[in-house]
């Protein structure tokens, strides 16, 4: 009787351990890379970004406007006119944040034209834009602690 019980228990364990072992890939997708903060400084003459080169993935721009009037920023791929992300006008001495999920390539961060008339809006901004380079994709945050 004991041998039969042990044999039945062993067969049950073997059968249960084989469940779900199809050998396929995991249905759980890898987490995205941990977001990187980039500092953006705007004054009356230029836009500057630090650091100027990061890997592809989520990026959070922390923007401060030190210009004499409100400025709005737009982020676009170099040579493209359609922005990937933009901000509302940022008051002087104000800050804001913008999140973008980048793919590899070169990007431009520039201020938008401002004014009351169409002629004012068609003039390019006198503030020099900044360029950033986005390299290959960063690693997944699967092994990082305290990540969602």
The helix fraction, in percent, is 10-25%
Number of helices: 2
Q: How many strands, which pairing sense, and closed or not: the largest β-sheet?
A: 8 strands, mixed
| Spans where pLDDT lies below 50 across 5 or more residues | none
Integer-rounded radius of gyration:
26 Å
Order of helices and strands: HEEEEEEEHE
Count of beta strands: 8
How large is the share of residues in beta strands? 35-45%
Structural class: mainly beta
What is the general shape? Answer: rod-shaped
Overall pLDDT metric:
82
Taking the alpha carbons of the first and last residues, their distance comes to: 52 Å
Describe, in plain words, how this protein is organized in 3D.
This protein has helices spanning 2-17, 118-122, and strands at residues 36-42, 47-50, 53-65, 73-77, 85-86, 95-102, 105-111, 130-137. The longest helix has 16 residues, at 2-17. It is mainly beta. The protein has two helices and eight strands, in the order αβββββββαβ.
Features:
mainly beta; 8-stranded mixed sheet; 2 helices
Task: Summarize the model shown.
The protein has 148 residues and is mainly beta. Helices cover 14% and strands 36% of the residues.
List the helices and strands and how they pair.
Blueprint: H1 2-17, E1 36-42, E2 47-50, E3 53-65, E4 73-77, E5 85-86, E6 95-102, E7 105-111, H2 118-122, E8 130-137
Parallel strand pairs: 1-3, 3-8
Antiparallel strand pairs: 1-2, 3-6, 4-5, 4-7, 7-8
């Amino acid at each position: 009787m004991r041998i039969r019980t042990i044999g039945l228990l062993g067969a049950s364990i073997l059968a249960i351990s084989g469940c779900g072992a199809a050998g396929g890939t995991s249905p759980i997708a890898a987490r995205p890379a941990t977001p990187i903060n980039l500092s953006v400084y705007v004054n009356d003459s230029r836009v500057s970004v630090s650091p100027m080169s990061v890997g592809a993935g989520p990026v959070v721009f922390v923007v401060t406007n030190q210009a004499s009037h409100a400025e709005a920023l737009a982020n676009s791929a170099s040579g493209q006119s359609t922005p990937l992300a933009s901000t509302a006008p940022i008051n002087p001495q104000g800050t804001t944040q913008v999140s973008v999920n980048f793919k590899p390539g070169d990007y431009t961060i520039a201020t938008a034209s401002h004014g009351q008339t169409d002629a004012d809006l068609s003039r390019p901004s006198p503030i020099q834009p900044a360029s950033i380079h986005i390299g290959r994709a960063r690693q997944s945050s699967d092994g990082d602690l305290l990540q969602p």
